[in-house]
Design brief:
Order of helices and strands: HHHHHHEEEEHEHEE
Number of domains: 2
Structural class: alpha+beta
Strand content: 15-25%
Distance between the termini: 18 Å
Shape: elongated
Number of strands: 7
Helix content: 25-40%
Length: 289
Amino acid sequence: MKKVLLIISVFAIFSSCKDTANSGTQSTDAALTAEGKDASYAFGINLGQQVESLQNNPQMSDSLILSDFEKGVYAYLKNPERENSYAIGVSFGQQVKGALENEVLKGGLSKDEIIKGLMDYLNKKEMRVPVDSVQSKMNAFYQSRLTASAEGKKKEGAEYLAKVKQEKDVNTTPSGLAYKVIQEGEGESPTIGDLVKVKYTGKTVAGKVFDSTEKNNGGEAIELPLQEGALIEGWTEALQFMKKGGKYELYIPSDLGYGDRQMGGDIAPGETLIFDMELVDFKKGEAQQ
């Protein structure tokens, strides 16, 4: 798996990373922290700034009715029909839903506070959160939730790995990487600078598949450069002791995986990862070609 570094705004993080679990998508106001209420309101203001840009568009300025827009935001969260200004509200409702279902933010935001911030901004009302502090409010709240989420996942992963390492056929390296040999390969092992050809399936400790060559490459092996920084550390280490034809199950703690970063909607901060890995082949010294 190639290491992907994404530089995106906190707003994009709020609205794009979704969790597919069927748990609740928002806290009750009674359960919200003051920071969560302010972050929700700030998120609404942020959305309002986007709507304002639509209002300033000559093609949209006469057709965007705020009352219909607000109905559309609420309506999307209840999955109704949509059109015109209502349809624009629906599109913003999708962003709100993404934030409410975000793996890190879930349970910490309020739908009503988000929409209140959005509509207060658009209706030029006095706002509880100053516009110039919107991004900092969102960022601070996200970072606090990110830290808490990562700590929880690390604890979960450590408990899982402790059980796995007790199995007699599981080996552990000094770095903390654990692995099980399913099928030993033959010949030499690849080294840094080689081009490896692998098949893999990646799962969380809960068993959720988040990536695989079967799903994303038609079942065919994929070629990747075995170089420092090109792959997650757990892969870089494991591939150097695997042999051609070898099949291993890798148990990768977060510090050898993606660390405290959230990768899309499937890999949470601090997540321990499991990979079924097959080293199909490798080419000596061709990583940079």
